[in-house]
Amino acid sequence: MKSVKPHIKAIASDLDGTLLPYHGQFNTADIETLTRLGQSGVVRIIATGRSLWSAQKVISPDFPIDYLVFSSGAGILNWKTQQLIENYCIPFEDVHRTTTLFKRHNLAFTLHHRSPDNHRFYYHQGSSPHPNLAAYLEHYHPNGQPLMEPVPHDAYSQLLAFMPNWEQFDTISRQVTNMKTIRATSPIDDASIWLECFHPQVSKAHGVNLICKHHQISEHDVAAIGNDYNDMDLLSTFRHSAVVANAPQELRNMFHSVRPVNEAGFTDFMSQFTS
């Protein structure tokens, strides 16, 4: 890979399905590209929906990045120092109102503790348990506990509702107030619909912008790549953006497309910025 053009000073990449194939391993070419980017002085950021605990299960301490924006922006970690530099929580009043809404619509959902312990959560199954919730509980065992009444009075990092269809997603998301709602596809089965709720300031783009502000990097000097609907704000915020070819057709119609994740799509994207 050739040296990176000066106007690209930071790169933000989603993790699952973009840099890391589902149920696969990182591509050697992408690891080499990240290493060379660092040698060129480019700030390397992974922006993921995973919790810190979950991300650390697949990213080694010596992985060639500088920052991790986790839980879709609810937290930011300096990867080299492992210092938590940002952490957003949802006030209890908003949590209580939203859990009441979800229960009224008989939704299965999870309620996550504040970062960095947001891999621990309460769960509510409803009268008709969602199959993806069962898989979620198995995947994150033993970190989930049944949600008892009343909801424990505390601030939380995130709510995640398991939606039966897109129509109900649209209906419920419009009724959620004082929170940022994000549409996502379950990385567990790559199909189930998730409605994620966060503090209003939370987004992948906001997290990346905070890092760039610290380094005095303009939005115009940032490249971003993703693969799913929860990357929309990231891809729409920065001038240089792309999706991998395994992204949904709707996103490929909206953004420039590069090779799929299992063919080093990240490296393909970065090759556009070499001299």
UniProtKB/TrEMBL annotation:
GO molecular-function terms, A-Z: magnesium ion binding; phosphatase activity
Matches recorded under SUPFAM superfamilies: HAD-like (SSF56784)
InterPro entries (alphabetical): HAD-like_sf (IPR036412), HAD-SF_hydro_IIB (IPR006379), HAD_sf (IPR023214)
GO cellular component: cytosol
Pfam families in alphabetical order: Hydrolase_3
Protein name: HAD family phosphatase
Organism: Breznakibacter xylanolyticus
